[in-house]
Structure prediction request, 272 residues.
Amino acid sequence: MRVVILAGGMGTRLQEETTVRPKPMVEIGGKPILWHIMKHYAHHGCDDFHIALGYMGDYIKNYFLNQYNLSGDLTIDFSKGMVSREDRETEDWSVKLIDTGLHSMTGGRLLRLKRWLGDETFLLTYGDGVSNVDITELLAFHKTHGKLATMTAVRPPARFGGLVINGDIVENFTEKPITGEGWINGGFLILEPGVFDFLKTDACSLESDALTQIAAGGQLVAYRHDDFWQCMDTLRDKNYLEGLWQSDNAPWKTWNDNNEARLQLMPQNKAA
Prediction:
């Protein structure tokens, strides 16, 4: 199943980091938060990634190119113009990096990916939040309800916007703080291709335009996740996540380092 990650925003609330790199490339434990998100999805068998690029998109492209070309041990034969690679650690991922415009809104970025997503159900999340949400259970929940969209609802601090939920149906979606249960959009969505009927231009917001209308039609359901979720909006958030990782207490680390990556022995004298 395809996974869309929105990674094109400018990250203005994290300018201590985002003046030199896009927010999805801000590191936790020496790895971009984007990598952490992808590892979580891949752990649940979802490893066909479509990354919507915008601000400093080339930085993200270079990261993945370097991961492919520079990992492992290199032997360079200058006389023959040959490079061989050994003990190269790789991920079994397919990663499509798509420029979706510098100033496109979230809905516009998704709209630009339409031709690659086809007519199948797909997953979507933001490139700045981690969670231990069970993707396998989330998919089963979505299939059981048979609606156009499923959103992972989480309970973070009240400074975020919120959801009004009746049963499993989202009756209202708002980016402004609300009272009540205090559930908000935590990303980790599952969408049917019908979502594109609500997206028209680069200026469309996935949240304010598409999801609001989908909720009004009773086609947005909430998967309540009461466990760990954390976005990385500010330097304080970044430091909090770094502290969890360094203390070996990162709840979003659902994968096992011993079997999630593989060492691939590359043939000798492979042309560069």
